[in-house]
Design goal:
2 copies of one chain form a homodimer. By secondary structure, chain A is of the alpha/beta class. Chain A has helices at residues 8-16, 20-27, 35-48, 54-60, 82-95, 112-124, 137-149, 174-188, 208-223, 240-253, 267-276, 291-299, 310-327, and strands at residues 65-72, 100-107, 129-132, 154-157, 168-171, 194-200, 229-235, 257-262, 283-287, 304-307, 334-336, 340-342. The first copy, chain A, binds a DNA duplex through helix 1, helix 2 and helix 4.
DNA sequence: CTGAAAGCGCTTACAG
DNA sequence: CTGAAAGCGCTTACAG
């Protein structure tokens, strides 16, 4: 009597009249199979609608996968990057039993060279997959292309540089997030009066992503024929004194500023300034779920925060590598996160 | 030479001087181990910080798990429940390779008896885990208690009835979601004038969750000393004609309604009425990401929609059962979803 | 109460 | 180019 209730690879082997070793070779596209048998096996697989058993595969395989991540380190000053890291850790805990380890590299977001150094280290270490926050455009692009040459999939999070060499981008549509910021501003700032856009960063020239948000913000006011005049200032030092000095000047020059839009998480500094200078009546919209900012949101100094689920970005970034490398299923080349609105009344429930 | 690089169960067996069968018995808390050896094995497990290999476990075990879900069916009229179902399907596709199947039961949310009938069917069928939308309070509670007696974990989604017999609740904090609705209303409705709350449902007496939202909404206006007078109307028929007739009456009685808050997804009916009756100037805030509502959001008839990630609720609901039954890790007894704000400018990116 | 063996569906050397 | 065997870390009968 033939055993006829075989499953998987064994059943294919029986039907094709070959050994399971051969079936394994064609499934995994390894060399050493005659075109004929390969064709035959493939046909039978298709016929059976064969789905490999991931459990068995991971259990049997002693191949370990190594992922690297390269994101900004977080400081006392701003702990934005804590959240993506938390997501990465969560993903790691879920897939480590599948033989995956993650090595973490950090760079200083105010120092381009630290990015370059770390990325070179990574390239030397033979990773199977890489996750980066491509803050510096040229350097990130170069790195991504190197990965591509080495056939190492590279996932971008938080801001995108559309190009062929990355596997996937997971993060906001920056233009639209700025656009939404403007709509929110419109709810809280009077229609007459000026609106001030503030970019705060030591590396503004490299901070393409801030400019995308600014573009979106401006576009809203133009498209909706708002009467507000939109002006802007760039602040290239991130400490409070610099912010304060700059804003004091701007407010002295422009008497009728009704709203301020800060294009990144530094909005808490602006809030501090408004509070200290007694300008809480100015509407304030900014980015990200930092504890410092939440305090001002509670008090009403900040009206809205736009958030993009940073933790989920980290989590999904790792899972995308996992899908690509382990599960072998196709991944979306661009995955936009929802654009979340945080107010005084819903911040408690936000899953950061 | 002793092989000293054993792992898992085999290594424990070696150290305890027993067979792996015995180790397996204590790991899985099966009978037939003397107290002494059990204690010994347990100590060694602790010493080694033993973590069972889930892959191997699922692969070796031929035990199949059966989950049941019991949620409202969706109709042309409202497809809200499509989203949780989609999440459930997604979860199923991820865990079916672990030997889990899901059987789907639906009830008519306008018919308490259909809920009772379906829940009785489920109790007869010997499931390992159950997910329900406990729309009808008493009946759901009774069902949940029956599950508890049978030792079947039961997860609630979408609305909660806090009690000991459920394993977990995954969904909104309804009170706060109403509270947030009021804050949003406050952005768009003038401070002078009346605000109208509308509950639309054929089963209003059972719809405890609508009332929780109403409570939250009212609380905001009270806590913030708003001058608006808040009034309400219950509409017990869900078709457009009923809604239209009722609202015509209300608007005739109250001339100065500046804003309307609809406590569920039926907000699109109200939007249709406002549009047809030329009352688009009235601010409108409601719930859920239905296509019909999104159309009115785009046009500006609806100002804000409050959403609670219904798809994610379904997904997480199933995964919670999986965690509890397969991974054997503790689950949160209450998991509040974020309270999301949807506007014209961010709906495109919402992951429903 | 305990142990030895077979097997889950794959991968990985190794032999031919 | 192909096959047979061992093994991944567990569970499941079965035997004693």
């Amino acid at each position: 009597m033939k055993k006829n209730n075989l499953t998987g690879i064994r059943e294919i082997a029986r039907l094709a009249n070959v050994s399971i070793g051969t079936v394994d070779r064609v499934i995994n596209n390894r060399i050493g199979v005659s075109p004929e048998t390969k064709k035959n096996v493939l046909a039978i697989m298709k016929d059976l609608d064969y789905q490999p058993n991931i459990l068995a595969r991971r259990l049997a395989s002693k191949k370990l996968l190594k992922f690297a991540i390269l994101i900004p380190s977080f400081s006392q000053e701003t702990d934005f990057w804590k959240a993506p890291l938390k997501g990465i850790d969560l993903a790691e805990s879920e897939i480590k039993q599948y033989g995956i380890t993650i090595e973490k590299y950090f760079f200083d977001q105010n120092d381009k060279n630290s990015f370059i150094k770390q990325s070179e280290k990574i390239l030397k270490s033979n990773f199977d997959g890489i996750l980066i926050a491509p803050i510096f455009v040229d350097e990130s692009l170069k790195f991504s292309k190197s990965c591509n040459l080495l056939q190492i999939p590279c996932v971008f999070i938080n801001s995108d540089i559309p190009n062929e060499s990355r596997l996937s981008y997971i993060g906001p549509d920056l233009f639209h997030s700025g656009y939404l910021g403007a709509q929110l501003m419109n709810y809280v700032a009077e229609e007459a009066g000026k609106i001030l856009i503030i970019n705060i960063s030591k590396e503004i020239n490299n901070y393409h992503h801030l400019l995308r948000k600014e573009d979106g913000f401006r576009a809203y006011f133009e498209n909706n024929n708002k009467r507000n005049q939109v002006i802007k200032t760039d602040i290239t030092q991130t400490d409070f004194n610099a912010v304060s000095a700059d804003l004091t000047k701007v407010l002295a020059t422009h008497g009728d500023i009704k709203g301020i839009f800060v294009t990144n998480s530094r909005v808490f500094s602006v809030a501090e300034f408004l509070e200290k200078s007694g300008n809480e009546n100015i509407a304030l919209v900014g980015y990200d779920f930092l504890n410092a900012s939440i305090e001002y949101l509670k008090k009403g100094t900040i009206d809205f925060l736009v958030c993009q689920q940073p933790q989920e970005q980290g989590y999904k970034g790792i899972m995308t590598l996992y899908q690509n490398l382990v599960l072998n299923i196709p991944v979306e080349s661009t995955y936009f996160m929802p654009i979340d609105i945080i107010t005084k009344e819903n911040y408690l429930f936000y899953r950061n």
